[in-house]
Amino acid sequence: MGVRERQAAVREMRGQIWSPGRPSKAGREDRVRFWEAIARGMSSEDAAGEAGVSQAVGSRWFRQAGGMPPISLGPVSGRYLSFAEREEIAILHAQRVGVRAIARHLGRAPSTISRELRRNASTRTYRLAYRASTAQWHAERRASRPKVAKLARNDQLREYVQDRLAGAITRPDGELVAGPEVRWIGRRHGRRQDRRWARSWSPEQIANRLWIDFPHDESMRISHEAIYQTLYVQGRGALRRELVACLRTGRALRVPRARTRDRGKKFVTPEIMISERPAEAADRAVPGHWEGDLILGLGSSAIGTLVERTTRFTMLLHLPRMRGHGEVPSVKNGPALAGHGAEAVRDAIAASITTLPEQLRHSLTWDQGAEMAQHAQLRIDTGLAIYFCDPHSPWQRATNENTNGLLRQYFPKGTDLSKHPRGDLDAVAAALNGRPRKTLGWKTPAEVLNEQLLSIQRGGVATTP
Q1: β partners of residue 314
Q2: Is the domain of 433 the same as that of 323?
Q3: Are 198 and 246 in contact, with CB atoms under 8 Å apart?
Q4: Is residue 263, in this structure, part of any structural domain at all?
C-alpha cells in the first residue's frame, strides 16, 4: 500500500472511529464513593481520600458539579456490563478466546460481547485494541443523557426568573440604581465587602409568585429546587453561574446538608446545655451563678466580661494580644495571637474567679464561642459547672448582655480594646459595681456582694438581697 492509500485509510478510519480525548483514571465507582462521602458531611479533601483520588481531583469534582452529585448514587442495573466483566472480556480477548466462548463464560449474549468489542475499543491510536478501563469510560460517556433544563427551553420563563433574581433595582421614580460594581471571582463574597445589588428574590419566592402572575399558564411553572440546580450545576445552559451572587447567601457552591448538621461546636454536648442548668440559677435564688461573654473591638481585640446573676457584680478579663500579632503571617491552626483564644480565655477566667470564695463559684453560662473550647479544663481548675446557651440566643444571657451594653459607654464599637491596660479595666468594673441598681433596691452590686461575703464568713447561708 502506497503513502496516498495509507493516508486515505487513516482519514477514513478517523471518520469512523472518533476519540473524545483521554480516558479518566477514576471510574464511576470512584465518583460514587466520593459523593457518598460528601453526603455524609465529609470535606472534599477527605472524600477524595476515601474515593482513592487526589485532593485536587476531589476539589475539582465538587466545584464543577456546584456541590451537587451529577450522577446517580444507586447501583448500576445488572442489565449493563460491569467493570469486572469488562476486565474478564479484556483478558479473554487478549488470549484470543472467541466471542461465543467469552459470552458463555460471562453468561451474556454473544451479540453483547461482539458489540462491546466493536463499540468500546481503544481508539486513540486508531487500533481496535480492547482495554477494560477505556471501554468502561466509553460506556459511561455514552450512557450519559443530560436533560435539557426547563429554563433553557422556555425563554419567557427564563427571562422572568432572571429578572426577579438579578434584575436591577429602581428608585421610586423609576430611575435605575446600579449599586456598587462587584466583579465575579467564582467564589462567595468576602466579609465586609460590597455585594452586587439586584432584586434578589429567592428561588422559593419566584416559584410561588409564578402561580399569582400566571394563574392559567401551566408553562410558567418551575420549582425552587430546579432554579437552584440551574444556578449551581455547570452546563445547564440556562442561568449564568455568577447569578448565585444574587442569592441571599451568596454561595458559589451548594453546601451539603450533612455539613451544616455537623457545623456546630464539637465541644458542646447536650448535658452541658443551658436547659440542664439548675433552677436556682434561673430564678437567681442563690448567688454564685455567672454569665460570661466577649466584647470585640477593632483588629480582633477583645475584653472578657463576667457578671454574677444575683448581685450583678461585674468582673472584666484582660486579654492582651500575644507576641507576634500583626507582625508575621497567620499560621493555620496556630495560636490565637489576638489574645482571646481558648487557652487565654480559660486562664483569664480562672485567675479572676478563683479570687472569690468557693460558695460564689457554682456555674458559668457562655455562648457557643470557640473561645470556650477549653471548658473542661476550666471546670477542673475552678470547680465551675459550665453551661452553654442555644445558638443565636443571646437573650438566655440577659444579665450579661445588659452589662455589655453598659460597657460600650467606655469601650465603643470599632475602637481598639487592646490599648486598655488591666488597671483601666479594673477602674471601669469598679465604676459599674458602684452604680446603684433599681433591681437591687438601689443598692450597688458591690454592696450586695459584700453582704453575701459577710454572710459566708459568719457561716450562714447566703440569701438573695
Answers
A1: 307
A2: yes
A3: yes
A4: no
125 and 160 assigned to the same domain = no
**pLDDT class for 464, splitting at 50, 70, 90?**
very low
The Cα 377–Cα 393 span in angstroms is: 25
Instruction: Using the predicted structure, report yes or no on whether residue 308 has a pLDDT greater than 80.
Output: yes
Residue labelled with grid coordinates 446603684: 436
Radius of gyration of the chain (CA): 33
- Residue 403 backbone dihedrals phi, psi, to 5 degrees: -65, -40
Give me the pLDDT at residue 215, please: 93
Q: Got the DSSP string for 53-80?
A: S-HHHHHHHHHHTTTS-SS--SPPPTTS
Residues 198 and 119 in one domain: no
Q: What is the domain count for the chain? A: 3
End-to-end alpha carbon distance in the chain: 111
Domain membership of residue 78 (yes or no) is yes
**Whether 286 and 400 share a structural domain:** yes
User: Cα angle at 372 between 256 and 189, to 5 degrees?
Assistant: 40
Contact 201, 164 (CB under 8 A): yes
CA angle at 156 for the pair 152 and 158, rounded to the nearest 5°: 45
303: pLDDT confidence band, cut at 50, 70 and 90? Answer: very high
Instruction: Point out the domain boundary residue: 214, 231, 256.
Output: 256
Closest alpha carbon to 119 in 18, 23, 25, 9: 18
Which of 96, 115, 143 lies at the terminal end of a domain, its last residue? 143
Contact 313, 433 (CB under 8 A): yes
Other beta carbons less than 10 A from residue 151's beta carbon: 23
Range of the domain at 309: 270-457
Q: Are residues 277 and 396 in the same domain?
A: yes
In sequence order, the 6+-apart residues with CB closer than 8 A to the CB of 296 are 302, 417
Q: Can you read off the three cell numbers belonging to residue 69? A: 452529585
What mean pLDDT is predicted for residues 284-309? 93
Q: Are strands 363-366 and 289-296 parallel, antiparallel or unpaired?
A: parallel
CA 310 – CA 397 distance, rounded (Å): 13
Q: Rounded to an integer, what distance in angstroms lies between the CA atom of residue 429 and that of residue 276?
A: 30
The mean pLDDT of 133-150, rounded to a whole number, is 80
What's the rounded Cα separation, in Å, for the pair 338 and 418?
9
Q: Can you say how many angstroms the Cα of residue 269 is from the centroid of all Cα atoms in its chain?
A: 20
Q: How far apart are CA 409 and CA 75, in angstroms?
A: 64
Question: Could you give phi then psi for residue 247, rounded to 5 degrees?
Answer: -70, 155
